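Re: weekly structure request thread

Next one in the queue (429 aa):
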Amino acid sequence: MTTVSDTQSLKMLLRKCVHCGLCLPTCPTYDVLGDERDSPRGRLFQMKALMDGVVPADDPSLNRHLSRCLDCRACETACPSGVRYGQILEETRAALPPSTAATAGRTIVLGGVFGHPGRLAAAGMALRAYQRTGAGRVFRRIGGFSLLPPRFGALEAMLPPFQGPVARKPLPVLTAARGTRRAKVGLLTGCVMGQFFAGTNAATTRVLAANGCEVVTPRGQGCCGALHAHAGAREQARARARALIDCFDSSLDAIITNAAGCGSMLKEYGHLLRDDPAYAERAQAFASRVKDIGEFLAELPLRPPDGRVDARVTYQDACHLRHAQRVWRQPRAVLAAIPGLDLVELEGSADCCGSAGIYNVTQFDISMRLLDQKMDRIAATGARIVAVGNPGCAIQIKYGARSRGLRIEVAHPVDLLDRAYRGERSGTH
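Done, posted below.
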C-alpha cells in the first residue's frame, strides 16, 4: 500500500532523472536483454507514466519490465544526479496490484514464514531434515524432478548445507570483550543467516570479541523487512522494522550486520518510518548506528590477527553493500590484513551475480545467465576461495561452482578473519 507521502516523495524522486543514460552500461538486465525498457532509464520512464496516469497499474508490459529489475542499485552508483532508484522502484511496486500468484506468495513466504521467527525456525528444521535424510538424492535418483518444471531441480540444488544445529545452539545474549573493551555492539542474526549461516554468525561474534567488543545478541529477533520492501509490501516491512528497533537497546555503540541486504534495509529505516510519529526519530537514530561488519572493523580499527590463511582469495561485491551502502574498500582492507592471504581482484566484481533476494526463483533464466558470466570471471582468477558478504550471493555462487565442478570455497570475509584469529590454516594457492 502506498501512502500520500509515498506518492509525493515518488514524484519528487522521479524528477531528479535527467535521462542522460549513464546508468545503462551498469544495468545487468539491459546488458543481458538489450531492451531499454529493461534498463533504469527505461523503467523510470515507465514509472513516471504510471504516476502521471498515462499507463494503468495493471498494464502487463509495465509489470513485466519492473519485475525483471534485480534492484541491484548499480545505476545509483553511476548516476550523476543522485537518483534514488531503489526507493522509487520499491514505492512503485507498492502501488501496483499484485497478481493472485504474487499475493499468495507474499502471504505464505513473506507474511507466513519470514514474518515469524518460530515458523522460520520450523521451516529451517524441515529443510535440515530433508538434507540429512538424503530425501533429495532419492527423489532425484528415481527421476522425480523430471516430472516437475526444470527450474525446480535447479532450485533444490541451490539449497546450501546448514552450518550447524541452529535451533539447539543459539548465540549467547551477551559475549564479553577480550582485553580492553572498545565498544558495546548489537548483532543482527538475520533470517537466512540465522538458519543457513549460523557458523558465520558465531564467527562474527568471536571476531568482534577479539577486537574488544562486548556483543549483545537479542533473543526474539525477526526479519528486517528487506524482502517485504523489495516486493512492495511496505506495511509489512514497516511492521518488521518497528519490531526490530524494539529489540535493540538505544545505548549500543553500533548495530552490526553481516548480510548486505539486511544492512541496506536497516540503514533505510529512517526513510521507511519517516511518517510514523512514534518511530520516526527512533528509526533515524537506529539507522545511524548500523554498520556492516567489514565497515565497522575497518573503522575500529582492526586488530591484526596472528594466524594465517594461506590461500588465493577473490572478493565479490554484494550489490547492496557496494551500491546501496557504498561499502567496498573496507571489506578488501579487512581481507588484506590477514597474513598469508593473496587477494586477487575479480573482474566485474561490482556486477550482480543474479541472486538478488529471490530473483533466482522469480526470474530463473535471467539469473542463470548472470551467474554464468560471474562464474567465468571467478574461474579466471585462479582463486580457491571467493569471499562475499551476503547470504544470497553465497548461495548463488556455491551453486555455480557445484554446477561447473569447480573446487572453490565460498566464505564470508569474517569467516576467513576468524580462522586467522583462531590459528586455523586454510586453502592453497
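The mean pLDDT is 86. The first strand starts at residue 174 and ends at 175.
Next request, please.
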